[in-house]
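User: Structure tokens for this complex, please. No commentary.
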Amino acid sequence: MTKSLMTPEQLLGLNQDHLLCINDNIELIGQKFQCHHEVLVPLARLIRQSEQDGIPLRIISSYRSFEQQLAIWNKKFYQEVELNLRDGSKVNSQDLDEAARVKAILHYSALPGTSRHHWGTDFDVFDASHIDQGLTVELTEQEFEEQGPCGNLNFWLQDILTDYQFFKPYFKDQGGIACEPWHISYQPIATAALADYPVALLKHTLESTDIGGKNIIIPMLNDIVEQYVMNICNPDQQG
Ligand SMILES: [Zn+2]
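Assistant:
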């Protein structure tokens, strides 16, 4: 198996030495972002192909650090934020008790240290042709349905992703992270990263941060990793 080429700290978003910073000189990508140094060329190839096929793929989100993910988590945990529940209903985060709040946040947002965005191998993408028309993309499932502004992109990705060694880890909801048709992952590095995933260091790291819901999270950490990190759709489960 390929090595992930990442240290345990890098796998948790605590160190950035494996990343390349792409600035806005990169014509094809068009914005500043960071990715794993082995992923830039395959990503550029995928984007170039999308241009040639008339569906300009762009990146809305790439690398995120542990600290950035912690800020996302604590905002949802401590502030009045609308959360989507698994049954499709919405609720104010502060109306849930702490255990229910942790569970609701986990469905859509990774626990800090468990996001695949820490690796620089994973990207949230959209179809830029609709942005030119003044449309903002919010990354909802509806946008990626057949008639939605990213429907064509979704269909195109389905056809081409494996040729470029990318796949969708959240192709469908398997009881972990919700379905995210916009999230793509570079398989050779990401699969190795998952195999190297450092649960003990994650526990140690979370114990020493000010994460909301810590008393609930730490005792169930192994289950969280199983349900939300290991439980992905593999490249051969994309149909
Ligand atoms: Zn994502």
